[in-house]
Specification:
The chain contains six helices and five strands. It has about 140 residues and is of the alpha/beta class. A five-stranded parallel beta sheet has the order 3-2-1-4-5, sandwiched between helices.
């Protein structure tokens, strides 16, 4: 069983979509939702995450044991998501041994070259395919 850590901030809508999609392809996985704020956490829990927590320490602790970490690319960049990602959070994600699937959201002054302007739903489909591929290996 894979432990999938989904990290999101602001309203948690991207995280919500990821929780629903991961549940669909990996029903036996443990999905842990960590929000940078309580609203994001609650949104992901309502979507079906198995466990949830909020804040910096939750990211640090959960990143240690995750097999896969999923979220917007900003979870690995200090001060992104309008300041919701602390430097300690970004370090925890970066130093984790988990496979990281970072969704290239071109917002908050973080622009990813070569990605183009895909819809969030398209990016989530690609991320889900990567998670499925990882789960088979």
């Amino acid at each position: 069983m894979k432990k999938v850590l989904i990290i999101d901030g602001q309203g948690g809508l991207l995280g919500k979509q990821m929780v629903e999609a991961v549940k669909g392809i990996l029903p036996d996985s443990e999905i842990i939702a960590v929000g940078t704020n309580i609203m994001a956490t609650n949104t992901m829990l309502k979507a079906g995450a198995d466990n949830g927590a909020t804040g910096e320490n939750a990211v640090i602790v959960c990143a240690r044991t995750a097999d896969v970490i999923v979220g917007p690319i900003g979870i690995a960049i200090a001060d992104s998501l309008l300041g919701e990602i602390t430097p300690a959070m970004a370090v925890a994600v970066g130093q984790s041994n988990a496979k990281k699937i970072l969704i290239p959201v071109n917002k908050c002054n973080n622009m990813i070259v070569g990605v183009g302007d895909k819809k969030t739903s398209e990016l989530i489909k690609e991320a889900i395919q990567m998670i499925a591929d990882i789960s088979r290996s």
